[in-house]
Task: inverse folding
């Protein structure tokens, strides 16, 4: 009988992606480009929220959007109506983007004239959370119809996000959704995450969200300036 070899894997299978993500973040900081990774389940309102966001910030920052989907260009066509620079990314069946794929998208977007790049990740609460895209900040949208218990069911997604937008607040009376319980569940997973209730349809909460984003973009660009001084 042949000897059985046992190989102990001591390095994370995500290690190479994590390294690429850090390199990408460093390059983006040097260029002064802020990359936002926006995640959610399908139908939570990513594209509608993006349209509202662009409407508020288009005169503040030069914005570029990468729309990631398994197929179709429906969302990219919608975003193109906002006047923002947009590119469609097809993942070839993959349910997420990793750092290498994000880099390809940024190259296609040609970010030389972009200050705020937004990646609308594939609609999924599992895979996108597992891969560092090299983003400056991670945001996710949880819609009221999905239920207030999602932070308990999808812990990684909520733990990697810097901000959680609770969307579709206009339908709160129609659903058994407890906002305070949801906030509590999010804090259990990520005490540092900022929680902002919004309604992308009516515009409720969008100002608070865009103010947060403006501060983060400017802080990111200030880090670039500080590095030059050093």
Result:
């Amino acid at each position: 009988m042949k000897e059985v070899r046992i190989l102990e894997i001591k390095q994370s299978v995500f290690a190479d992606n994590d390294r690429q993500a850090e390199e990408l973040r460093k390059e983006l900081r040097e260029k002064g480009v802020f990359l936002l990774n926006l995640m959610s389940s399908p139908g939570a309102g990513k594209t509608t929220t993006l349209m509202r966001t662009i409407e508020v910030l288009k005169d503040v920052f030069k914005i570029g959007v990468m729309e990631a989907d398994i197929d179709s260009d429906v969302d990219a066509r919608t975003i193109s109506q906002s006047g923002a620079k947009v590119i469609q990314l097809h993942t070839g069946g993959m349910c997420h983007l990793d750092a290498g794929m994000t880099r390809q998208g940024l190259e296609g977007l040609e970010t030389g004239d972009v200050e705020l790049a937004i990646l609308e990740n594939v609609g999924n609460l599992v895979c996108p959370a597992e891969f560092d895209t090299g983003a400056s900040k991670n945001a996710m949208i949880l819609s009221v119809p999905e239920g207030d218990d999602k932070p308990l069911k999808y812990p990684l997604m909520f733990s990697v996000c810097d901000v959680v937008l609770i969307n579709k607040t206009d339908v709160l009376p129609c659903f058994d959704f407890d906002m305070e319980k949801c906030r509590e569940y999010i804090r259990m997973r990520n005490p540092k995450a900022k929680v902002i209730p919004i309604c992308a349809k009516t515009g409720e909460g969008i100002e608070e969200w865009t103010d947060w984003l403006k501060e983060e973009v400017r802080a990111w660009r200030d880090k670039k300036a500080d590095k030059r001084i050093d």
Observations:
- The first strand starts at residue 34 and ends at 40.
- The longest helix spans residues 206-229.
- The chain has a mean pLDDT of 91.
- Strands lie at 34-40, 63-69, 85-90, 116-120, 137-143, 163-167, 194-197.
